[in-house]
Amino acid sequence: MAQPTLLTLPVELITTISHNLTAVDLQSLRQSCKAAAEKTSVCFQERFFRTRYVMLEQQSLQNLIDISEHSTLREAVRSVALCIDHLIDPRDYRGRAQLRARGVNDEDDRVRLDDGETVSLGDDTPGSINMGCYQEAWAEYMAFMTKKLHFKHLAQAVYNLPHCRKVSLEDAIRPWGAFRLGRRIGTLPSRFVTDALPNSVLHAMVCIRTLFVAVVKSRLPIEELHIDFGTGMAGCTAVFPRILSLPRELAQAARTQLRTVTTLHIAINPYPRDNKFNPMYYNGLPVTDPLRNETADWTEDFLRFIGLFPALSTLSLYFFRRDEGYQFPRLSRELFVPHLQSISLELVDCTRSDLMALMERHKETLRTVRLESVSLLGGSADRWSSVVQSFRHDFSVRKLILGSCFVDRPWPTTDLPEKMYARTPQELDMLVAELLELEKSDGSTEQSSQGGDSTETSPAGESV
């Protein structure tokens, strides 16, 4: 009696119900009868095929190829996420306990038990996993990569996904291939990118290049690119500019094909000492590869990468683990994105003048500004109200978001609320008034403690 009652409901309601079912329950419902499968097809495709997560492993990429050749499912895919999951060279293998002792840890790693997954993180010490199967899987991986089949497979799959408009490199979700591999070897693949695991940084570089090759060869009008890994894990690195360097021919092809990319989100490591590629990896690189250039310049490397996207209009920069004046002063003077309409900056310490210099360079096109955990160095308590006043009177900003921003001074410190929004000139005026009220008491305290005189200082300690 329950079945016909459920199936007489509107498709929209069935879709809502289906979204709240576990993967196993949804599968059971779909297998109950043909009508149930038809009425849950929208939810099924949205949930499992709108974004496809894959890793650089033969079966994982073959699965994506199979989807791309399916007459219905290929139409549902809007985004392809290449996940950083990978096997560690058996000679360098370390379990989570060993890595934790070296400061490398992922507290947020969870197994999707609600989706019916049976692989647990469990004991992954070398003596507890199936090392024979592990070495066999490693040999298969190396053969696959040595033949450069990873380039061919991903490009072939993306080429056949007509509605795919977003590609990404990330570590937030474990792909199906990682769980399949985990069941075979007894432990989940690593998703750490750290010097503690020698082949992990090399793997990240290969992932980046594989993604760009796929975009170039597919000739799809990709609109969004996201690169975000390493930010939720201790002892790991986010991407750094040097590793984004592409071989000359690939870079030239990318500049042509990436003319459709309008949105770039990138979580990036701002530390100069990390912007290097270990010479131990040079053996597999051509002598002309830019990664062999030992003279690393963070800003030049980054600007060269940004130059690959001539139509870029939305830029999101997440500095991990916070740019404490390392890169932003120079970046604010040299970064120019001709069509920039929306910018997001997160985890930055900078002077007001550096921040506004970057904004001024884009004032003709800039319409949306989002600043998260941005600290204005030095200066008086009214730094943020003056910033918003500039946006109100000197720019054509239609949306301003401030989140957990503050003024970093000896004492006292003005902390802004967690979220502050303004979408119209009137709301900008209200935001200025709110900020002035917040800064009022702090400013009077500052005047009594500093004689009412203050200057803005740069990270190098120079007055601005």
Automatic annotation (TrEMBL):
Which stretches does UniProt call biased (Polar residues)?
444-464
User: In which domain of life is the source organism classified?
Assistant: Eukaryota
Protein known as: F-box domain-containing protein
Region called Disordered, residue ranges: 439-464
